[in-house]
Each structure stands twice: as structure tokens, then as C-alpha cells.
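User: What would this chain look like folded?
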Amino acid sequence: WLLMLHDRVDGEQLAITHDYIAIMLAVRRPGVSVALKQLEAEGLIENERGVILIRNRAGLRLKCDGLYGATEQEYQRLIGWKPQHG
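Assistant: Here's the prediction, encoded as C-alpha cells.
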């Protein structure tokens, strides 16, 4: 989900809160915080209040284990839109 959001913004910063991510993914906020801390510990993101900085997009893609990309390709095929960072 972070990669899809990153596709739609300029730059590496995502102005988003843990609460908003939890709402969008229909999960509890503490779970979001734990997951983001893990991604930060792995050097994939930097997580500060209200901002997530993508540090290693390729690493995030690997973490997705092939689940990122198919939807984006179909969206591009249907609409002609290309991701900013894809």
C-alpha cells in the first residue's frame, strides 16, 4: 500500500498518519505502528510524525513478494497512467 501511495506523489515523502493508514487498510492503529517500525528497522522507510519517507523502494518491492505490480500494470493498460516512481 505504501508503494501504491508512493506511485502517486512527487518525491519520497508521504504525508500520512498511522491512523489514516489503519483506516484505509481496515486494521488497528497499533498494528500499523508495529509494521512501520519493522520496515524502519530494515532501512526501508523513515517514520516521523505524520510523514513516512521511502528510503529503499526496491527493498519494499522485494518485501511485497510479488504482490505489487499486477494492479498497477492493469491500471496503466486501462487508463494510460504511469506511476511516478514505478
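DSSP finds five helices and three strands in the chain. If you want, I can go into more detail on any region.
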